[in-house]
Amino acid sequence: MSMSGDSNMKRNVVKDRENEAKKQKLLNQIGEQRLPYFTPRDAGFHQLHKTKYPKLLLKEASIVPGDLHQGVQQAFRTLLAQGCFFQDLIRIKGKDLLTPVSRILIGRPGCTYKYLNTRLFAVPWPTDGDEINYCNNEVLEACRSLTKLNDYLHVETTRAMPHDAPEPMESQDSSVAAKPSVPAHFVEGQEHLNAEIPDGLSLSNRANFNVTLINYMDPQQMTYLKEEPYFGMGKMAVSWHHDENLVERSTVAVYSYSCKDTLIEDLTENVGTGRDPAIWHVGLKIAWDIETPGLAVPLYPGDCYFMLDDLNATHQHCVLSGVQPRFSSTHRVAECSTGTLDYIMGRCQVVLQNLDKNVNSGTAALKCLDVPVLKKMGEIHNEVEFEWLRQFWFQGNRYRKCTDWWHAPMAHLEDLWRDMELMTNLVLCEVRTATWPVEEKHEILDCLWKSLSARQELRKEWKARCRSPIARSLPADQKPVCHPFWRDNDPSMPLPFDLEEIISELDQLFQVMD
Q1: What are the tens digits of pLDDT across the range 300-315?
Q2: What is the architecture of the domain spanning 341-480+497-513?
Q3: How far apart are CA 149 and CA 254, in angstroms?
Q4: Which letter does DSSP use for residue 459 in this model?
Q5: Three-state DSSP class for residue 513
Q6: Residue 209, CB half-sphere, CA atoms under 13 Å: how many?
Q7: Which residue positions in the chain have pLDDT lower than 50?
Q8: For 341, phi and psi rounded to 5 degrees?
Q9: Which of 127, 303, 341, 423 qualifies as a cystine partner to 110, CB 3.0-4.6 A?
Q10: pLDDT tens figures, 168-197
């Protein structure tokens, strides 16, 4: 793992602890009471929306093109029928948990998206110049439809965030007038969108969606749904959160589709106060604020909503369960500076420039043994193994359900990683000699010891995760694979999988020098 990855992990641990403390403080403050919240049926909803939630934008299904609805909804059904939705085995506070929501990531070829210590690898959407082999034409058409949706949401996002006030986006279907309506535009609070933008964060960058995370939620199959703890909004399919790993101040755009059913109409006739439990809603609140009422916004089939600008950072949102199964396509500008295939391949090239390998004779040597170079080598070696190879194979063979696009690059990445194993062994051979000056040898030993110790602990952790009861319970094509893995006497590998003896040897070398 890279130093940046290690520091990010530490920051996430600190953030998790801080958020847990804030949550407990908030719950203690409200005690047995419940904070107020508004739905569109409440008189104060529209004013609250305009003044406290102006960057929440809803586009009702009636003003989304009909052919787009048809293609997207068919794409959802196709992906479900093809078995392309998966629960993720995430890691929170050192524990592995299976997400109640099933999902698939689709996006630009080579993009990944990381959340809750899990890296998802995007099934590539059709792109000019990229040869993508989908498992069948149905999956191809589904990805094509979701690409069209992505283009549409990009255009609507840029329209919604001009420097001048946007034109109201009114519903053109009179048949929806009977249901509670959310304004599809904002008027007050527009000045927030025109605040000073940091360099590099242009409107196009903040609306240039590179992935969509598609969720499938079936309340009948989700055996346990938490009660919303602050407002009493009812059952939550997704708890309060900020979306992670996004470009700063980028919009999140969501297309929502839940199956229509006359049962819902029957249930809604007798709804009292509060939100309708038969209808899916998105809940919003200002983060860690107990003074401002929350919002519960109903989501009818085909509705879209946009969390514009910094709304995702300043507010939290949750998904409140309805009765029927629901799909959502959440389009994001993922922060991919360290999360693309091109990035990690480039990192490998940095390391391998230091390897002089003669293919004909089979000999190999390092060009440089400077400590900064060796330190970088260890960081990238660990990053390739634990942020890419093990993340990918921990998800089993799920990606073959849609495409084999990732398998060739991952095989190539593994070949490069094997060269890094060779390079580590070459460093070991050097420090075992007695010809090095003491101070220089000490620095190299220290660098190598830290890299191998981190690698050993992470290998043990990933191996244990792959063998956990929850991992073993998954279907065969989703079972985590501990890969790369090899026996200690494997002649094709220059170093053992278990590094304990080598680390002990380094400890002894330290003692001799002291």
Answers
A1: 999 999 999 999 999 9
A2: Up-down Bundle (1.20)
A3: 10
A4: H
A5: helix
A6: 30
A7: 1-5, 163-199, 262, 264, 267-269
A8: -65, -40
A9: 341
A10: 333 333 333 334 444 443 333 333 344 444
